[in-house]
Amino acid sequence: MTTKFPYKHLLGLRGMPRETIELILDTARAMKEVHSRKVKKVPTLRGKIVVNLFYEPSTRTRTSFELAAKRLSADTVGISTTTSSVVKGESLLDTAHTLRVMGADIIIMRHSSSGAPHLLAENLNISIINAGDGINEHPTQGLLDLFTIREHKGQIQGLTVTIAGDIRHSRVARSNMWGLLTLGAKVRMVGPPTLVPKYVRDLGVEVYTDFDKAIDGADVINLLRIQKERMTANFFPNLREYNRLYGMSSERLANAKPGVLIMHPGPINRGVEISSEVADSPSSVILEQVTNGIAVRMAVLYLLVTGQRERSTEEGASSFLWEAES
Amino acid sequence: MNTKRTLLMSPEDIDRTLHRVAHEIAEKSSVQPPPALVGLKTRGDILATRLKRILEDILGAPLDNGALDIGLYRDDVEISDSIRELRSTDVDFDVDERRIILVDDVLYTGRTIRAALNGLFDLGRPQRVELVVLIDRGHRELPIRPDYVGREVKTRSDERIDVRLREMDGEDGVFLVSHTD
Question: What is this structure's pTM?
Fold first, then answer.
């Protein structure tokens, strides 16, 4: 059985067709099996060079990509910008071109500016994976959330998913939203009014300010971290008040729909957006998300590399498209 | 250009062949430990399940069986024209020190079996590995030979063997598909 994956890059879930998302999730299911083996390594990407180029701190995403590449037998190189030529003033494109001529096949990139990976994708003839760009998208996080939900609930279509917290600064929220809407879920967003952008209503998202109403009847609750590092103004009075109004507590969990999934992209701030009891409760799939992340990233690496030849005949690149947010 | 389909094996032929192969495996089992069957997706696993049932009747003991997907072990991931859909490997028993019988529908270049051996050895270290194929169509590119063969068929490389199994295709039958001008 053969299939099509006409993308050279993974820049975002916005505009990605349903079949493509489902192909990635199905491929990830096969990859997850490798994780349960004694030898957690397959030879598929032998000889390929995968570069992690991270301009922002990251533990899980970077480690997850590195393990995913290693499990597929690719060689990996990690560039940390604090110890590289970036501190000597080298531009992003110059750094990337240097990595390309050293033989990189795929660059995985995180950057604080929205659109930075798109700039590389337009200028370099190698595959670029967006590992988080500013407040725009974090597509592999969105995919691993979809994968985790699908594994527990069977399908995404028809589910109600509440995304709570700092929506404005969250690329995770945006990737989740695009993916969930494409796969037919009902998406609710809730948080302090200052942290929920208005435009999401136009995309078919239900916006709440009352957390208890927003989680009533939801099948999945995805809690986001307050991103203090991206806040340039005071968006809410203080963390204690935030916790009272929007924190996921045991009482709130008790009132939620039976079987509700509690998700969090991490790192979690216990006592702020989620209580310790909820984070460690049986409803929480937070650690499973981390495990699934490796399988999903293996799937993306596999599809980007193996799809190369068919792309040489028909150059399709619609996951390329990206527009600046107003 | 027309295609010609020639029947190579009827449903009864397939059934009779599987019984014969099962008896050959069982015969060796007097000197070998009980076998475990591992079929290659997506038709070898069906044949392995059928063989397992027949063998269990003959040996009077339950046997392990599993399915192997070799997508991650192929040597043509970059030269093939499209992506092969991956399916999960499903071997839920320990293969260490076991006598493993690999089962596939058609043996051709031998590359699939090379990939399957690599995949199998990533799961553990079997004591020995034997190979069952329903059809051996020749044209080997690697030093691989089957231990049990349903039928040897002389083919040209532009011909195709179409194996149909009722669990997947709704009917049993093996056909040789060739193009005629």
Answer: 0.87
